[in-house]
Write the C-alpha cells for this entry.
Amino acid sequence: MDVLSDVLAVMRTGQARSARITWHAPWAQEFAPVLGAVGFHVILQGECWLIRPDADPVPLGVGDVVFRPHGLGHTLADSPATRPTTPACPPDRPGILQRYAVDTVGLPTDSGARATVTVCGAYELDPALLHPLLQDLPELIHIPAHLGRHPQLRATVDLLAAELAQPRLGTDALIPALLDTLLLYLLRSWLDQRPAHHTTGWAAALTDPATTAALQAIHRDPARLWTVATLAAEANLSRAPFARRFTTLLRQPPLTYLTWWRMTTAARLLRHTDAPLGAIAGRVGYTSEFAFATAFKRHHGTAPGKYRRQA
C-alpha cells in the first residue's frame, strides 16, 4: 500500500456515517465536538454558512466542500443570525446513530426561499493511532466549487448523494466504499492546493520525491532492517543530506518515524487480528517476542498482550 492508503487503513475504526439532508429556512444546526472523528459537508443545492467560534462565518454555495479533520465543533445555518434550534443530524455522533440517513429539517414556506440540500458525514478514527499527517491538517479545509477542478471528488460526491437519496440493492456495500474514496480525494485536494509557503510538514514531504521514496520504502516493508544509509539509498541521496531533508520536512529523524510506524502497525494488528505475538513481532521488524514486547510497552505504555485484551 502507498503511504496515504496505509495512513487511512491504520487510523480508521468502526463505520463511517453519512446523511443527505434538506433544510428549510430558518434553520441552524450545531455540530458538537467529537473526539476521534473527522467530518465533512457538501452543498448540493442552495446556500448556507459555516460558523465557528472565534472565526468569521464562511459562506458556502453549490458544490462547495468543507472538511473538518479534528472533530471541532461548528454550526451550519441559513444565516449567521439564525440560532441553532434543531437536533443533531446523524453524522454528529458516529458509531451511535444510524449509519446512513435521509432527513428533512423544517417546513417549506411561502417566502419562495429555496431549500438547501447537503451531504454530511463523519469517519471514526482511533485517537491512539492518529497519524501525524492528520495532525498537520488545518482545522478547516474549504474546497470551493470551481468548474473543472477536482473532477474525481465531484464525481464521488454525486455518486454518494445518489445512493443516499435512492438506496438500492448493494447500497450497504457502495456507501462505505464511496466514503473512503471521498476521504482520499479530500486529502488529495488538500495536498494539491497546499500554499507555497508551507515548506515543511506532511504536505511538503509527500510532494518531495526523495522523502516520499523513503516513506514508501518504510510502509512497503516495515520489517526490513532499515538504517539511515539504506533509506537514503532508496531516496537516491547520500546519508547526511537525506537525514537533514527528512528531519526538516517531517520534524523527526527517519528512524524515529520508522519506530513509530512499526508500533502503530503492531497496535492495529493486535486489535484487528488474532495473529500470535511472535508473528506480529516479525511483521514489524523484531526477531524476538521479548524485544518486541519491550519496544511496544515503551511506546504504548502497556504490554502487547494487555493491549490486545483491552481492545
